[in-house]
Amino acid sequence: MDAEASPVRQWRVPSGVPLAKLIGAVVLVALGLLLADGDPVQLTLIALAVAGLAVWALRDLLAPVRLAVDPAGVVVAQGFAGRRLLPWPAIERITVDRRPRLGLTSELLEIDAGESLHLFGRYDLGAAPDEVAEALRVARPA
Fold first, then answer.
1. Maximum mean pLDDT: which of 32-36, 79-83, 125-129
2. How far, in Å, CA of 16 to CA of 64, rounded?
3. Fewer CB within 10 Å, N or C, the chain?
4. Are residues 24 and 86 part of one domain?
């Protein structure tokens, strides 16, 4: 994506999501200190879980924009904090996958770019996958 080109629209992680992950990490630390009784194995497992949650929250804070659309194509989050432009001709399909799980229906936005498949949930986008799919279809040149 050019530095001069500005995205027409962006979808980002809601601000409450990284906060919830950090609060979860703090709760795990408190529970670990309360329940581990100095057991090094339990403390190590808790430390790994806390580190994982903290890194996951850090990713949300460093690269909150997961998806953007502009006239050149769609910019998707890639890796820890990278971005990748998918030109419109490279995008084969934009669909929403719905699956029932444990009495709930999960929805994922799927962007199929031939050699790569990019999946985004509601908490990646801060919006319903249906709405984002429709906005992408509208933004796609004819």
1. 125-129
2. 11
3. C
4. no
Q: In what order do the strands lie in the sheet with 73-78?
A: 9-12, 65-70, 73-78, 82-87
Tally of domains within the chain: 2
**Which residue's entry shows tokens 């850090």?**
58
DSSP type of residue 6: P
Q: Which one-letter amino acid corresponds to residue 105?
A: T
Examine residue 8 and state whether it is found in any structural domain, yes or no: no
- The pLDDT tens digits of the residues spanning 47-82 come to 999 999 999 999 999 999 999 998 999 999 998 889
Q: Output the CA–CA distances (angstroms, integers) from residue 10 to 33, 70, 142, in the order listed.
A: 41, 9, 21
Q: Which of residues 7, 26, 61 is at a domain's end? A: 61
Last residue of a domain, one of 61, 78, 94: 61
